[in-house]
Design a protein that fits this description.
InterPro entries: Mos1_HTH (IPR041426), Transposase-MT_Hybrid (IPR052709). This is Histone-lysine N-methyltransferase SETMAR. By secondary structure, the protein is mainly alpha-helical. It is built from seven helices and two strands. It has a two-stranded antiparallel sheet with strand order 1-2. β1 and β2 form a beta hairpin.
Length: 133
């Protein structure tokens, strides 16, 4: 599925370089690949990227619900070095500082004068997951 989308984006880039409009591009692509192949709005979004100089046809990472692996990475880093800041962790694993702080809170970590420490009186995520059992 992703390869097909990437191919259609390459077609969008082709028409963009031929100075076609988003409407014309949508019409030409849909004439060959079906009416639901792309929407005009999607073509507009990609044309906007192309105008900014980004001519990659590969879709970037999306925001959304982070994976469990990210939470495990945060925990591992804090266990290795409790003095890491949320900024440092976010730079290392490419997450927002807010997401890192949320993970740490969910994992039961609090900040004290020496850095992060586990607070076993704080509710953690696994406790909340079992509430519905």
């Amino acid at each position: 599925m992703e390869k097909k989308k990437e191919y259609l984006r390459c077609l969008m880039l082709f028409y963009f370089r031929k100075n076609k409009t988003a409407t014309e591009t949508k019409r030409k692509i849909c004439a060959v690949y079906g009416n639901d192949a792309v929407s005009e709005r999607v073509v507009q979004i990609w044309f906007s990227k192309f105008r900014k100089g980004d001519t990659s046809c590969v879709d970037g990472q999306r925001t959304g619900r982070p994976g469990v692996a990210d939470c495990d990475k945060v925990k591992m880093l804090i266990e290795r070095n409790p003095r890491f800041t949320t900024k440092k962790i976010s730079d290392i694993i490419n997450l927002s500082e807010k997401t890192v702080a949320d993970y740490l809170q969910r994992l039961g970590y609090v900040v004290d004068g020496d850095g992060w420490r586990f607070d076993d009186s704080a509710p953690n995520q696994s406790d909340n997951d079992n509430d519905n059992d």
